[in-house]
Structure formats: C-alpha cells, structure tokens
Task: structure prediction
Amino acid sequence: MNLLETIKASITNAIKELYGESVSAEKVQINPTPVEFTGDYTVVIFPFVKMAKKSPDAVGAELGAYLVDRVDAVAGFNVIKGFLNLEISNAWWHVFLGEVVSTPDFGKKPRNNRTVLLEYSSPNTNKPLHLGHVRNCLLGWSCSQILDAAGYDVKKVQIINDRGVAICKSMLAWQKYGLGRTPASEGVKSDHFVGDYYVLFEQKAKEEYEVWQQTSVARAIFEEKHKPEQGEKEFFKEYKNQWFNTASVLGAEVREMLLNWESGDEATLSLWKQMNSWVYAGFDDTYERMGVSFDKLYYESDTYLLGKDLVEEGLAKGVFYKKEDGSVWIDLSDVGYDQKVLLRSDGTSVYITQDIGTARKRYQDFGAESVIYTVADEQNYHFAVLFEVLKRLGEPYANGLYHLSYGLVELPTGRMKTREGTVVDADDLMDEVIRVARDESEKRGELSGISEDGRETILKRVGLGALKFFMLRVNPRKKMIFNPEESVDLHGQTGPFIQYSFVRTNGLLQRVRTESIDMSSFSGYMDIQPCEKELLKAIHEYPDVVQQAAAEYDPSHLANYCFNLAKSYNRFWHEVKILGAESIAARAFRLQLSQATGSVLKSGMQLLGIEMPERM
RNA sequence: GGCUCCGUAGCUUAAUGGAUAGAGCAUCUGACUACGGAUCAGAAGGUUAGAGGUUCGAGUCCUCUCGGAGUCACCA
Result:
C-alpha cells in the first residue's frame, strides 16, 4: 500500500477509536507540506473538529500521536493552526528509494482487462495535416499512453474523411489542370501535392466568382437580396456558398463528380483512389515523424451510409419520430437541447447518422465499453447530442462515451484560413523546430563527437520534444494562441529543459558504469537534505499524477509534473555534490536518487509521447 | 437571443474548497578552481474581470453583471 493511503487508513481508524465516528479514507486530505513549515506531509484537521468536539490543535495533537504510535513511517509531527504536519522517517525513504529503482514500471498500474477505444486525428484527405491536427494527434496519442499506463487496453483508431465535396475539388483541379503530373514527377511530398490542387481549385473558383459578379444576373441578385446597410463586397462574400451551389460552373462539375463517385463510376473511382493513395503516403510519413500510430483505420467511404438501421430501431422504440415530409427527428428539449434531424426527408443520412452507425460498428469490432473522441470543441454540441441519442437507443457502451474536447489552435493573427494561406503546415512546423534545435546544438558544440545518424536522432528528439511539450503543457480545454517563437523555445518551462535534466542523470550513471562506482550502500545516509527530500516527495507523487491524468484525460498534469521534477533535480544538482559527496553513503544515496529521477522523467515524458536523448 | 466553455503578473500559464495564489518568458542583480550554465540563486511584477452569497476557510461552489470564444443547418 502506498504511504498516503496507509496514513489515511490509520486516521480513519483513529477517528473511530478516539471519537466514535466513521470517516471514509477518501475524505482525509493529505498534501505535501509547504516548504516554510517542518514536515513532509500535512493532514487537514478541520473536517474532524466537529466530530471530536475539541479544538483543531487538540485534535491534531491526538491524531499525530496516534500516527507516530501506529505507523512506522511516521517519525514525528507538529500542529500549526489546524494543520497536522507529519515527518516521515529516513528509514522509510530509504526503502522507498530502493523500491523505485528496482521497479521498472513504477507509476504504472497492472492490466485491468478493460478495453478503451480512442479516436483521434481523423483528417480530410484533400490537404495535408496542419497545426490543428498536430494538437489533436499529440493529445490523442498522449492520452492513449496515459490510459495504457493506467492499466487499460487502448485501441487507437481514426476515421478518415475520404469522400465528399472537398476531395472532389482536389480531384477535379488535378484532372483539369494537372496534365498528368505526379508527386514523383514534381518532387513534392504527395499529400502536399494533392493539397496544392485543392488550393488551385479554390483559386480558380474565386476567379470565376469575380467574373460572375460583373454579370447582369449577379447585379440583379445583389439588387434584389442585399440587406439595406450591406455593401456589394460584403454581400458577395456572404453569397459565395449559394453561388457555388447554383450558378458556378466549377461547382456544377464538382457536384457531377460527387454523383459519379456515389454511383460507382469507374473512372471517377480510380481517380479518387489515386488521389487518396497519394495523401495516405504523405500522412503515413507525417504520423511516423510525429511518433503516433493507429490500430485500425476507418474510412468514411465505408461508413457514411451506416446508421439508417439504428434510426429504424429508434423509430420502433419510439425514441425518434417521423415528420409528415418523411424526415426523422429526436426531441431533446427535456435535457435542454433542440430537436435534431437524424434522417433527411429524402431518406439520406446526415452527419450524425453515420456517427450513430459508426459507434455501433466499432462496438461490434472491439467490444470496448468506453470510447473517447478526440475532436475540437467546435463540436461540443454535436457530441452532447450524439451521446444522448446513443443513450436513449439503449446502446450498451453509451455510458462510457467521452468527448476529449480541446480548444482550437489559433495564430496571433486569428484563426487559420486555407484561403488566406495562413495555415501552419505540420511538416513545416516539425522542420522548423528541428532546425532551431540544430542551431542551438551547434552553438553549444556538445554533439561534435557523435555520428551523423546519432546526431539527427537527438536533434529530432529535442526539437519535437519542444513542440510536443509546448502543446501538451496547457489544459486541453484552453484555446491556444500559437506563437511560433515560443513553441520552439528551448529554455525555461520546455521539453528540452526536462530532457536536459535527464541527460544529467544519464551522464552520472554512465560514469558509475565506466568507473564501477558503488551506489548500493546508501542506507547509512541519515542526513537527508531539504532538496533531497523535495525530490523524494516528487517521485513519490508520480503514480498519483498518472492516475489523475488518466481520470481527467489531461496530459498537462504530467507535463507540469515532469517540469517540476526536473526543476527539483536541477536545484539538487547545484546544492549538493554527487560524485564528490562527503561520504560513500551520501554518494550512493544521491546516485540512487538521480537514477530514480531519471527513470521517472523518462517514463513521464514517454506518456507525453516525448523521447529522451542520451546526450544533447 | 438560448446553451456551453473561458477570463489569474506586461505575455504564456499552475493550483482534489485549505496555510503567505505557484511557475516560465520578458526586465534587473548575482553564481563556473565544471558531477554538462539548454542550469542555479535573488529582485521586481497579483484587489485571481466586477459585485453579492455559502463556508471555520473561496481563484475554485451558488447568483447577477461585464468581456471573449464556440454553437444553435434536411453542411461535415
């Protein structure tokens, strides 16, 4: 049993024995003692004052005495203003340190034989991955690692939106203007190649629209429909979608292509397969570089018709209802939502229909009792509705659904817009952070003796470490303003700061090996310094942090934890001598402490998807 | 307008209802006779948007106000 649990259990016993009241162990609050007081852990006494009918200080004194008496680890105590500060014995810390070093999986829970499905990334195939996907992927991947550490069997999936108007735009542009060019012939990364045709399409459509605006038909529409205060420019900006769907030649061609696709036209399908295969090759490359992977891919071209049978089931159960025009609806006004259409009057699916169908299909595939959707917070309402619908359908997994919602990534200039060319590309971004890592490294010259390959591996770890930590250290819910300069910072509260601490521990252990330094006989070390105690307490906290991150689906807890641990280690590094310690026992103890810190840092960062360099 | 989320130092942010709101960046001072200075120590910087309330105790919970974002499609 963990130390704090032992103490909590003992306090519930004490309350029972001393005051005759029962208190559950979860109600007992224990925090690390702030540095300005003496002690290691602090019990908050106030909750027990009423049941004891004594002053806070008296209760604290009684509980403190009880704990010193019954719990070996508790060596002493003091009570200040209703807070019971406990001192943990050196002997207990020695045992603890030994355990951490000899437990490779320290902080991780045993397998619990429960399966969780985690969906993330889920891009469209008309253009390459961008900054928004990066946050999504890093979050999704990190959560998968955290849940794995918490004992779950995690299945990572993505559903690829490989059909629809968007990809048809890229297809059409390539067909009209591509002249048989390929990624290979142009030497362009294949997903970017496809994306370029999407941009080209938008450009051509814009040109067509501008010409059209000068026609008499356009003038007439403007005169008829514009709002009183609305200028021409504003009106036509707003009217663009409608124009595209009614008057545009390119629009008509795209719609025709979509119809051809849906009717299974062979030429269209083969073009579609060609374009998508280019995109997938590019995505694979980006994912690999980012260090994320999937257990199964779903394609919308396979799933977009799913869900209709569930709509029938819902109608039969009376959960849904049909309007006169044949459309099917659900009324969620009793839980504060609106009425929502589930099937169009012509019998075709809407967005939520296929999500309903896909949910069941995936349950059949994996039997997961819990499904996590990593999707931006624009879709909060959609998922609230989806989960409510599945609940009312009585789906067995409906209570295990979670929308891992995250704030959009915006630029200092506002939201990214493809049309305005303000999209930050994922590949470019990774290039950039690695370039900055290289510059910094060359300035320092520490890697001069390492092979080309080894150096590249390190620079990649450092650069991506900076990027990943930057994106994961804040609460996912928060909107993120992406400042390119801060994202590649290598100093302060950053990934490389933590990696550097690890490199320090690694360097020490290297010397232990090469010089056969003894680090086993540390139990005689009794004079544990405050900076050492701080480290021990931080290491002791690690399993709880993993649990909390898993329970809240929030990697930022781990990111902040790792930073604090690294900071404590750096302070320790400066305050005491390790290899040159005052005694053999002190040296052994500090080396053990370094090893424990290094392994927890490595483990914690791995849960963020960040790899540790051996040197940097 | 309804619903949801957000508002903490110049900037980015932390804080299971617990002690004097904790960090990083930027600014200013210091620290290498080296276990790696991508580091450390220190200074300065806060009416936690505002007003009420609940509580022994509120950045955190409740109510209202102000400010910002998202959403409220037979789009995805």
Summary: The CA atoms of residues 111 and 151 of chain A lie 4 Å apart.
